[in-house]
Design goal:
This protein has 290 residues and is mostly helical. It is built from 13 helices and no strands. It is globular, with a radius of gyration of 18 Å. The N and C termini lie far apart (51 Å).
Length: 290
């Protein structure tokens, strides 16, 4: 068992030939009593849902509130037109993230990674990694176990809840988990994966949770899209050998401290930020009445 990211890296490198996924499987066995094969079978179902949520979310239909829907398709058409400014890998991740979160807003089946509000980042990055790196099914499962290992430390030492720590704790954690898993999938080390986590969280420190009308739609869908892009950039930075000047566990602790200090209005209450703008209030009244 590991309690910090430093311990995670050390144990993966010392006891599991550098594999964070194998360390996480061993930890699952320790905590639940399940065998590695049983844990992989459960994760296989999660993998199926993650991948299908991207496909099922690529529709033009609107959510019940009417706030979101169709943007993933718009992004897909934009990419296909071939006149993008950004690299297509990043934009496909952006598209995928929006698709998953739009599906969530329409009450479709998604996999909380680590929460429903941040469910777009991980499948978005995983899907582009499958194409970019030609990942086998076993490697895709390793991707998820790796993400879970880093997410476990973040959840235990900081938060993954918007109501507790703001959106830095939700999309920030999801993006960081995705970045770490991507580094490992691309052949990086556990230490490099930890640096990618640090880059993402440092970039998202202080991000508030301010859902318009209290719904997980605006700005959540687009925050997941940008979170997915952050994961890809952070992974490249780490693979380039760039290191965080602040140790990653201190970065995670900083996120916890910022979350504690954050006013309640900015923690999923829909009382501040974008939710409290005139337009945000208008949408809330239009959807729920006076």
């Amino acid at each position: 068992m590991f309690y910090t990211i430093k311990e995670l890296v050390e144990q993966a490198e010392h006891d599991f030939n550098g594999s964070v996924a194998q360390l996480m499987l061993a930890t699952e066995t320790e905590l639940t009593g399940r065998t590695a094969d049983e844990s992989r079978a459960i994760m296989t179902r999660n993998l199926e849902v993650l991948k299908s949520s991207v496909v099922n979310g690529l529709t033009e239909s609107k959510s019940l509130s009417g706030l979101t829907g169709g943007d993933a398709v718009r992004m897909d058409k934009y990419i296909q037109a071939g006149k993008t400014l950004s690299d297509s890998t990043i934009l496909y991740a952006v598209r995928n993230a929006m698709a998953v979160n739009e599906l969530n807003a329409k009450m479709g089946l998604i996999c909380a990674t680590p929460t429903a509000g941040s469910a777009g980042c991980l499948p978005a990055v995983l899907n582009v990694a499958i194409d970019k790196l030609q990942l086998t099914t076993d490697q895709q499962l390793d991707f998820l176990f790796t993400a879970g290992a880093f997410g476990l430390v973040i959840a235990n030492n900081s938060s993954i809840s918007g109501a507790e720590g703001g959106c830095q704790a939700e999309v920030g954690s999801a993006s960081a988990m995705s970045a770490a898993a991507l580094v490992m999938a691309a052949g990086g080390t556990a230490f490099q994966a930890s640096q990618a986590v640090a880059f993402v969280i440092k970039n998202m420190l202080g991000l508030i949770c301010d859902p318009v009308a209290g719904l997980v739609e605006v700005p959540c869908v687009k925050r997941n899209a940008l979170g997915a892009s952050f994961a890809l950039i952070a992974a490249d930075m780490a693979l380039a050998g760039i290191c965080s000047q602040i140790p990653v566990d201190e970065v995670v602790d900083a996120m916890y401290q910022v979350g504690k200090a954050m006013p309640t209005a900015f923690k999923e209450t829909a009382e501040g930020g974008l939710a409290a703008t005139p337009t945000g209030i208008f949408y809330s009244k239009e959807i729920f009445g006076e």
